[in-house]
Amino acid sequence: MLKHCAITLVLGLTLNTTLTQADTLYQTKGLIDGTGKLLNKTDFIVSNDGQITQIGNQLKITGSQHKTVDLKHLYAMPGLIDMHTHITYGLPNGSKGNAWTELGQVDEKGRRQAALENARKTVATGVTSIRDLNDGSGLDLKLRQVFANHKEIGPRLFVSGGGVHPSRPVEPLDYAKSQIELDVDWVKIFGTTGSADDLTSKAYYDKDIVKSITDAAHKAGKRITLHSYGPEAVDAAIYARVDSIEHAVGMSIKQMIAMRDNNITYVPTIDHNRYYADHRDEYGYTEEIDKNLRTFVKKNTQAVAGAHSVGVSIATGSDAVFSGFGENTCELKQFKAAGLSNADIIQTATVNGANLLGQKSQLGRIKEGYIADIVFLEENPLDNLDTLFNGIRLVLRDGKVVHDVRNSEPFIVNCG
Predict the structure, then answer these.
(1) What beta strand segments (E) does 340-383 contain?
(2) Domain spans of the chain?
(3) Can you give the pTM of this predicted structure?
(4) Which candidate, 218, 212, 206, places its Cα nearest to that of 243?
(5) How far is 322 from 90, CA to CA, in rounded Å?
(6) Topology of domain 3-78+364-404, per CATH?
(7) Can 3-78+364-404 and 80-357 be said to share one CATH topology?
(8) Separation CA 206–CA 210 (nearest Å)
(9) Element (H or E) spanning 93, and its range?
(10) E strands, 271-389, where?
(11) Domain 80-357: what homologous superfamily?
(12) CA-CA distance, 391 to 394, in Å (whole number)?
């Protein structure tokens, strides 16, 4: 049943607006859009089905079925998007010192338990959407539906299933097609070696194989990303016109310009190697590995600075695993070190991620018609980025509360 009520605008005019049952008006101190701008509006209305129906100033809704939430002491911005996670990589009781080996000993029930905890920590950091890459067990597909239906607290999932890798017992294209048939959102290709403490980058596939997989994914309406720890697989990715490249360091300016011109987004995942170094006791890593990981962070930071300077679209990706969930947004601090402005950094975690997901008309902005994924913060992140790490008070996903510490201490994102 639809109700009509009057909304008073800042100019003193009255507009008759149709509101659905249980619409909610949020009054804030200020709205920061995903474009990196402070809007000249403070209020917005969220419909019962989780869409932003109106933004403005001094908005009012009347009627017992509607609700007004006074958050005039908080700023609001779009929910953040983490474009590289491994939410099903978790241990229900934590690591005893060799997390990767221990993961192989956990059954699906235990992995699901750990994944749900990872999900709760993720939304506590303000992340409301994630792209999860390389599960392969089918648990990611199950969780996608669980979170879509709000049966558990967690972010919206875009999943790839298992990644295309030489260790698979079938041909690369056949394996990619098998994942597409499962109705994944993305296809992932491991273009090179490199993972965890292995910082090498030896190419696995030639450009024609990468292109055949990319063409199959795009024909099926799926997007595709390529893992390349160095520049070795970047030319193949550009030739194939993948949608994003993960991790790569050591790229030439020529390669970066080609990425820009072919609309290929760079997801650098700088911070995950800082995480591994800081948490090396959980993985059994030596001091030498620690040193190598931190050196890779510096190379990654240099690559981001170069890519940003020539206009490559950059998206935030934590590459979170195990206890890395809850540190999802530390990547934003690495972007600061690479020379990006606060406005640019906000874009990497909102509109750039939304564009890469193919969701640019639904996610990443506070705008009429968009999904109400909203983070409420103590300060304006354009002025003080640290509020994203210690000042998040309330998080909505689809207009529903998924994290609320308005009456308790905020969740602290520890970035080492």
Answers:
(1) 374-377
(2) 3-78+364-404, 80-357
(3) 0.94
(4) 218
(5) 4
(6) Urease, subunit C; domain 1 (2.30.40)
(7) no
(8) 7
(9) none
(10) 374-377
(11) Metal-dependent hydrolases (3.20.20.140)
(12) 9
Residue given tokens 């909304």 in the structure block: 7
pLDDT at position 253, please?
A: 98
The pLDDT value recorded for residue 21 is: 57
Sheet containing 392-397: give its strands across: 52-56, 43-46, 24-31, 67-78, 374-377, 392-397, 400-404
Q: What three-state secondary structure class fits 285?
A: coil
Written in H, E and C, the secondary structure of 191-252 is CECCECCECCCCECCCHHHHHHHHHHHHHCCCEEEEECCCHHHHHHHHHHCCCEEECCCCCC
Cα–Cα distance, 308 to 76 (Å, whole number): 26
| pLDDT tens column, 196-209 | 999 999 999 999 99
32: tokens are 């920061």
Tokens of 220: 């099926």
Bridge partners, 3 (sequence order): 19
For 15-68, how does the pLDDT look when each residue is reduced to its tens digit (9 = 90+)?
334 444 589 999 999 999 999 999 999 999 999 999 999 999 999 988 878 999
pLDDT average, residue stretch 360-386: 98
Element (H, E) at 123: helix 108-124
Those residues with Cβ within 8 angstroms of residue 287's Cβ, 6 or more apart along the chain or in another chain: none
pLDDT in tens, 335-356: 999 999 999 999 999 999 999 9
Token pair 């030498």: residue: 288
Confirm if 315 and 246 have CB atoms less than 8 A apart.
Answer: no
Which residues are CB-contacts of 326 (< 8 A; sequence separation ≥ 6)? 121, 122, 124, 125, 411, 413, 414
